[in-house]
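Hey, weird one. I pasted the NmrA-like domain-containing protein sequence into the form twice and got a warning about non-standard characters only the second time. First submission, copied straight from the form history:
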Amino acid sequence: MPTVFVTSATGSVGSALCQQLRALGWGVRATTQNPDSKSAQILKEIGVELVPGDWDDEEALRTGLAGCDKLFLCLLPDLGDFNKVPARAKNIAALAKAAGVKQAVGLTTLGAFAVEEGTKPPAEYAPSPFFTQHFHAKKRVEQALMDGGFDHWTILRPGFFMANFLEPKIHMGYTEIRDNGTWTNSMTETSPLGLVDHVDIAQFAVAAFQKPELLHGRLLAVVSEEPLVQEALDQLAAAIGDGRFIKAKFLSDEECAKVQAEGGWRFFSSETCVRYMSDYTDLGELNELIGGLTAFKEFLEREKEGVKQTYLGQQGG
Ligand SMILES: NC(=O)c1ccc[n+]([C@@H]2O[C@H](COP(=O)([O-])OP(=O)(O)OC[C@H]3O[C@@H](n4cnc5c(N)ncnc54)[C@H](OP(=O)(O)O)[C@@H]3O)[C@@H](O)[C@H]2O)c1
């Protein structure tokens, strides 16, 4: 059975991936900054080997990578230093190669298409200079895996996480949805919102790991469903179930430009390129690859305790 080194193992995608790999009987190793956290404990219970340390701790990385066949690379961005994360990716790729890793699967972002020749949106909908740098940093992370000397590599570029509507990710700029019953965003009434379930993302990684040739060399746009924004908010409100209405408020081009000029960092509330996200996706292929994607309604049902806790202040039970 192969062994996979998973970065961000205690995160949303990483945890789901660890569970799926362990269910297959594969070995999983990872580093964590906090071995006592609840998510680290859950991973330990299912047999994930955790090494205390972070992405800059070479000794911990070497220990974790020793004996691994495969690497899953998912690094959080650093919006204050666009060089930091690509350098980390390069270092981890080199350590993985030295440890004998043969295959790498990376997770970056759908936004990378928006700065790429051939897939860029029209110039007037280009990402702002700030997000252009962010996406180039993501592309440099991808490049680190492509240049890493692995026999096989795959890049997964996910859309908007369904989990962003729930604790804890709602604090990444979406609390307006909970607190005001509105979502001010830079989409339009007719642009499909590429939502992705983190469990589906993990399934794509597993599919790539199980058949290294299948997705080798691919930069795969990953979404689970593409509802209109208001449809998604209606489904969320129905799942909360207290009769509330959550209204989508769409920013005009001028309003988006104003938010950008004021230094707005909230991608979905400032950047018009998000309107083009469905140009990069192929739901038919994605469905076939993992044999069924998770609809937002299904996600909300599966995560109903998280919905209650986030929107009604109730703990699960
Ligand atoms: N949210 C979205 O809509 C969206 C869309 C597209 C792409 N993405 C990408 O998805 C990725 C995030 O994935 P996720 O949501 O699964 O992650 P997550 O839930 O935020 O978890 C991130 C994990 O990273 C670990 N970590 C943080 N800083 C670290 C450091 N300095 N050294 C070592 N470990 C560190 C933490 O683990 P420990 O504390 O246990 O060490 C944490 O569990 C990012 O690359 C993001 O750009 C997100």
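That's the output from the first submission. The warning seems to come from a hidden character in my clipboard, not from the data itself. The mean pLDDT is 96.
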